[in-house]
């Protein structure tokens, strides 16, 4: 007998750790950018060539995610996907009879909000996996988004195990907004050292306009930007390393969306 458990779990998505990179290629041909006019746009990147633009288009199309509607204002969790009110149905075996190893297990999932109403749009992040802890093995399932609140998941039954599904579409909308409005939410640091003097400043692909000069380490060959606020005493050429500085939490809504968890229901075959 195969026991199927659907568990929906929301988790924080900040896997960055504050690890110092000791051996990196530090560009020495740096220059200082004077304070920029605070009226200028934030995070302006180099224009792409036609070839680069085409490649970017293909990459974005390959990872395209369904459009999700904007969150209501004020934000209300009652309209977000809720695992406690969602359900799933294990579809009958196509050939009838008992399930056997190698069969294709098909599951139809209906997402509902916190009030129990069926969702009418897709975009939820569903990770489907058939796993066996005793064997220490697992196989990923294929999930199809019908874009109307319903999802289809298919697995090959290689062993007895459990299915874990992870999601919420509203969190995807919130992530898109945060990435657009706060591209520097994840930031980095660099150390500068000369003799007995050591300073640390913030670095990123783009920096918010301030009255502080900026060290420009943009790669002259690829055009990849990298900027650091200039140390007060040391020069840009005194940079010795780069490491993850952390991230700024501007996400009270995200906390609520990602830190909820609940069991949906159990089913057995």
From TrEMBL:
<dbReference type="InterPro" id="IPR026845">
    <property type="entry name" value="NXPH/NXPE"/>
</dbReference>
<protein>
    <submittedName>
        <fullName>Neurexophilin and PC-esterase domain family member 3</fullName>
    </submittedName>
</protein>
<dbReference type="Pfam" id="PF06312">
    <property type="entry name" value="Neurexophilin"/>
</dbReference>
<keyword id="KW-0732">Signal</keyword>
<feature type="signal peptide">
    <location>
        <begin position="1"/>
        <end position="15"/>
    </location>
</feature>
């Amino acid at each position: 007998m195969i026991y199927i458990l659907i568990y929906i779990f929301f988790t924080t998505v900040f896997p960055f750790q504050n690890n110092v990179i000791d051996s990196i290629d530090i560009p020495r041909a740096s220059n200082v950018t004077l304070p920029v006019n605070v009226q200028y746009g934030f995070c302006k990147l180099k224009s792409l060539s036609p070839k680069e633009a085409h490649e970017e288009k293909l990459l974005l199309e390959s990872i395209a995610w369904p459009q999700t509607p904007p969150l209501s204002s004020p934000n209300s969790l009652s309209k977000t996907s809720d695992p406690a009110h969602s359900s799933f149905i294990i579809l009958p075996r196509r050939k009838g009879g008992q399930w056997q190893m190698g069969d294709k297990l098909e599951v139809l999932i209906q997402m509902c909000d916190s009030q129990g109403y069926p969702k009418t749009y897709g975009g939820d992040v569903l990770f489907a996996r058939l796993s066996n802890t005793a064997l220490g093995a697992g196989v990923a399932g294929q999930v199809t988004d019908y874009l109307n609140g319903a999802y289809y998941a298919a697995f090959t039954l290689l062993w007895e195990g459990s299915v874990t599904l992870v999601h919420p579409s509203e969190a995807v909308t919130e992530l898109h907004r945060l990435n657009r409005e706060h591209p520097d939410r994840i930031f980095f640091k660099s150390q500068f050292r000369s003799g007995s003097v050591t300073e640390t400043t913030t670095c990123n692909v783009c920096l918010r306009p301030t009255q502080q000069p900026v060290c420009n380490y943009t790669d002259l060959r690829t055009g990849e930007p990298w900027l650091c606020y200039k140390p007060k005493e040391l020069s840009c050429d005194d940079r010795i390393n780069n490491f993850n500085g952390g991230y700024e939490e501007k996400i009270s809504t995200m906390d609520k969306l990602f830190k909820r968890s609940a069991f949906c229901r159990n089913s057995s075959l």
